[in-house]
Specification:
Blueprint: E1 2-6, E2 14-17, E3 27-36, H1 39-46, E4 56-57, E5 61-69, E6 81-84, E7 87-88, H2 94-97, E8 108-109, E9 121-125, E10 129-131, H3 138-157, E11 165-169, H4 173-184, E12 189-194, H5 197-205, E13 209-212, H6 218-225, E14 231-236, H7 241-249, E15 251-259, H8 271-274, E16 281-284, H9 293-301, E17 313-315, H10 319-330, E18 338-340
Parallel strand pairs: 11-12, 11-14, 12-13, 14-15, 15-16, 17-18
Antiparallel strand pairs: 1-2, 1-4, 3-5, 3-9, 3-18, 5-6, 6-10, 7-8
């Protein structure tokens, strides 16, 4: 079968002929119908983030059709449309047993530590595959397995409750999902903080109150808009020390800040006024959970999360096209959210 692989960091991906993957007793073989090209894949290609072993088939946002099931699989059958949770786990360690399987002692992320979806077929444990309703196109099923699922997990980790207020720092793909999901879960008001007018305009179409941080301090703006109370939940989706601090500073009494954006830098707070005196919380958010997938899929099926604006381009399973998309992601090109779709039947 065909697969587009990272052979050497810093070099273009290559289209290669590879053997069909072996289906274990608890596995499913999925014919790939859509594979999202994530910004993380650009980091993998450049060598900024480690991938092993090489060569590796990239692609952790995957949807397709079950082609074969292992002898121990009864929940799925050939012909089922599925989307794939990108963490493959053992299902039996202490972390899996307490619903924190992103820390599974033998867990592997597809497209990084085991072959992913830039291919004709992929094998994953059956527990990682979730039935994709007919109402959801494969392309949407693929991309919601990364940014959308992470945004939902962030809202779950910060224990957002109906009637609460939410500030979303960063109105990109994660942010647009977070805004819609917060409202779907009952948020009273969502504030979108960014420095790009076009992103804020899109956020406003989903009901968010836009705050342009280019010309004002967003913490002050949030205080003004909430009569000095601050927000119950703040999500930092950018990965900058400045916005991490702003997320904490924007909290109300008993507020919770979910830090999602990745950064190697530190940020400092004033413990008494910004944390202790509010009994506020700073919560780390890592990946997402398989048990959250059914809720996410149902919200997309019911139109509570609109992904039509997310996918901007469809490309073929070929190295040149995929490398071109990754080149644009390296340059932070506008509107780049491409999906590999070998078969446009859905």
């Amino acid at each position: 079968m065909k697969a587009v692989q990272l052979v050497e960091p810093g070099k273009p991906l290559e289209l290669r002929e590879v053997p069909m993957p072996v289906v274990g007793a608890g596995d499913v073989l999925v014919q790939v119908k859509a594979a999202g090209i994530c910004h993380s894949d650009a980091h993998y290609r450049s060598g900024l983030s480690r991938v092993e072993p090489l060569p590796m088939t990239l692609g952790h946002e995957v949807a397709g059709v079950v082609a074969e099931v292992g002898t121990a699989v009864s929940r799925l059958k050939p012909g089922d449309s599925v989307c794939i949770h990108y963490m493959t786990t053992c299902g039996d360690c202490e972390y899996c047993n307490q619903a924190t399987e992103q820390f599974c002692t033998s867990g592997q992320m597809i497209g990084k530590y085991r072959d992913g979806g830039y291919a004709d077929y992929i094998v994953v444990p059956a527990r990682s595959a979730f039935v994709l309703p007919d109402e959801i196109p494969f392309a949407h099923g693929a991309v919601m397995m990364c940014s959308s699922s992470t945004s939902l997990h962030a809202l779950m980790k910060t224990r957002m409750k109906p009637g609460e207020t939410v500030a979303v720092f960063g109105a990109g793909g994660l942010g647009m999902a977070a805004i819609q999901l917060a409202y779907a879960l009952g948020a009273a008001t969502v504030y979108a903080v960014d420095i790009k007018e076009d992103k804020l305009a899109l956020a406003e179409t989903f009901g968010a109150v836009p705050i342009n941080a280019a010309g004002q301090n967003p913490v002050d703006a949030i205080a003004d808009l909430t009569n000095g109370r601050g927000v119950n939940v703040a999500l930092e989706l950018i990965g900058l020390p400045a916005t991490m601090l702003q997320a904490v500073q924007s909290l109300s009494i008993l507020g919770r800040a979910g830090i999602v954006g990745l950064s190697a830098q530190t940020f400092s707070i004033t413990p008494y006024t910004e944390l202790l005196n509010k009994e506020a919380e700073i919560i780390g958010v890592s990946d997402h959970l398989a048990e959250e997938m059914p809720l996410l899929i149902d919200l997309v099926r019911r139109g509570k999360l609109d992904l039509r604006h997310v996918v901007t381009e469809l490309v073929a399973l070929e190295a040149d096209s995929i490398n071109h998309v990754l080149d644009r992601l390296d340059q932070f090109g506008k509107g780049v959210r491409a999906v590999i779709q070998p078969d446009s039947s859905k």
